[in-house]
Amino acid sequence: ALLARLSAEGTAGRKDFLVSEERFYLLRDAARFELPMLHLLSNELAESVYTTYLLLRKYPDNFYLEKLLCKSLYILAKYNNNLDRAFKSNYREVEGESQQAHFFLNKLSRKESTVLAARYAWLLQQKQPEDAEVEAIVRDLFVELGQHFEGLAGFRSELPPLDTLASEAEPGQADPSSKYDKIRQQKKEAALPGEAEYWRYGFHEFVNDSLFRMGFEEGRKEYLKRKEWDDYMRTRKGRNQWKKYEKKIEKKGLQLGIDRIVIVNPFYLRADSRDRNNVRFIESELGQERFRQLLKEMAASLELDVQMLDVADLRTDQSLEFNEIRLLNDWFDQQVDQDDLSLTPGFNQQKIDEIADKYGTDYFLWPGLLTRQQGKGLILYALLFDVRTGKREAVKFDYLHKREQAYLVRAHVYDALFQIKSKE
Known about the structure:
It is globular and about 90 Å long. Strands 1, 2, 3, 4, 5 and 6 form a 6-stranded mixed sheet that branches. It is α/β, with parallel strands linked by helices. 52% of the residues lie in helices and 10% in strands. It is built from 15 helices and 6 strands. The chain has 2 domains: 23-158 and 198-228, no CATH class; 254-421, 3-Layer(aba) Sandwich (Rossmann fold).
């Protein structure tokens, strides 16, 4: 019956495209260009690499796609150099052509993935030397290289020559080489970097470049500086110094001396453990409005200049601000997820820097309050980030075994903002 009805419908007067065909395919490809970024944000590195590779086959030399591939290889190296975050993929469960990307990335060692990322990033920087994102990645990868290599002497400046005299034996013809000839040949091959050391040729075109060598030396120095500090903080003297710092913060606060901040999406949640769906949505929405107003009020009393970016406080015509909040929250999620790594630029760091320029400050605050409908239990946090560098301060992260009361929340909000505003 359905086929009969459809057959009666003609195609006269209909169009294949509601917009022009050219515009349709342009928008389709623009959407496809965002797929690698979505994979990156989801920590799907192999999918990001594979998707970017496919797009680059159609759009070779597209700098946006090349930079996405650079970011994927960079994060892979950072993960592998952190023993708790090393990239692992069960490639046997992956079907299709993308399994090759999973297999390849899974088999790379820490050293190999770092050399691969550094090579790609350096070559990309030579194509676009003014790009700030690639420059930051290259600078950080030199630090990552510094933990694997004391110098560049182990790298080759030329590729090995192809043995044009080597030929396969004719079918059915025995190999005339004696056992001793084969042993001598094996020793000769062992003297050169073998397949297990192909990373030695990773920088062959530019290993003697003065700028590359200078970058490596600076990265090595920075790595040694960080290692020295980390080793010191593990000593008794270092632990005592940290305890003194904590006592000072407990007594006087952070005293950051910041005059202007942006507050992003103040978060409020009220839960009821007696209910299967334990989130109290109406109470949470009302509480979030009170929390937002309290932040504004306390900031004004401290003469702290605050710009509020909250999706619940936007008008329908503020699509630009909505996208800024999305980018900031993606950046925040990445920084929190990668908290165990060294400071790492965001996947969209250039856009984040532009947002910081727009609002006239590098300091963005993510505050939140979680409370219970019944019983005691209150969590209040305020995480402050320098969005250009990734440096952060947990201005407040307190659990209180108390009920939510207005005076209590007010005091803690005031204290958090006071630590940001006050100076030593």
